[in-house]
Amino acid sequence: MSQSNKILVSGCGFSWSGQEKKTWVNVLKSIGCDITDVGGPAVSNQWIINKAFTSLLSEKYNHVIIQLTSLGKLDVEVDEQRIQELVNADSLRNFTVGNVWPSSHSKEHESKRLYNRWLSSPGLEVEDLSCKLIMLDDWCARRGIPLIVLQGYTIPWKLPQAKSILYNKEPLYDLYQHSSLYQFHDHDNQNTVPCLQYHLSLAETITKVVQPNLADRVAKIQQYFG
Question: How much is the pLDDT for 3?
């Protein structure tokens, strides 16, 4: 009997498997990978790192995959009044994840415009993300858990220790936009989720790292959609 290989994944809508569009996480699940996906749509890096770490405190995993998102996203805890005023009134981010509104880059409400103008602090955000990433890497290393950090979008890193943890040198979305597969992108409703063909390519790369014995299954799916 083969040993269980539990994989923890946390990311934004680029990777999240709970949406209508299929991502590399769905592909890995379909070929038999045991994946716990704690990501969510339009969520921030704060959400992505925190949800991964709290999951690590309660469960044992063989691999951890973090897909970092773009800067400037703001997750907001909601109550009934905030749902009516902020969530339901937004034309695009009109949903919640648990009790959180992933407002992302929405500027429709005056409170978000004021936040972006007076309170948003990109330098502190990058510093906070860098510190968390370095500590998460150390935490996983001490327990022998391989950590794969995928940079989804451009981040102006200041600490070289954080940048050195990244699996990919170029942001995934930049690579996607400059690839031949971008011609298949669905641009409806400001969609930023890459096409299935790109996710299959990404799934092939990740499978070779976390569960190479299943790589041939991804190849077969690629042949079908090729």
Answer: 59
Structure tokens at 59: 């469960």
H or E element: which one contains 108? none
The tens digit of pLDDT for each residue in 2-38 reads 457 999 999 999 999 999 999 999 999 999 999 999 9
C-alpha 206/C-alpha 107 separation (Å) is: 35
**Element (DSSP H or E) covering residue 114:** helix 110-114
Q: What is the spatial distance between Cα 75 and Cα 97, in angstroms, rounded to a whole number?
A: 10
Distance of CA 226 to the CA centre of its chain: 25
Number of other residues whose CB lies within 10 A of the CB of residue 144: 7
How far is CA 186 from its chain centroid?
Answer: 19
Q: In whole angstroms, what is the distance from residue 209 CA to residue 68 CA?
A: 18
What are the contacts of 167-174 at 24+ separation with CB within 8 A? Answer: 172/14, 172/67, 172/202, 173/14
Q: What is the distance between the alpha carbons of residues 198 and 204, in angstroms, rounded to a whole number?
A: 10
Residue 92 Cα to chain centre, angstroms: 19
Domain boundaries, given as residue ranges, for the chain: 6-72+122-220, 77-119
pLDDT in tens, 117-136: 999 999 999 999 999 999 99
CATH number belonging to domain 6-72+122-220: 3.40.50.1110
d(CA 183, CA 186): 9
Residue 72 to residue 54: CA distance in whole angstroms: 23
With a CB cutoff of 8 Å and minimum separation 6, the contacts of 215 are 204, 207, 208
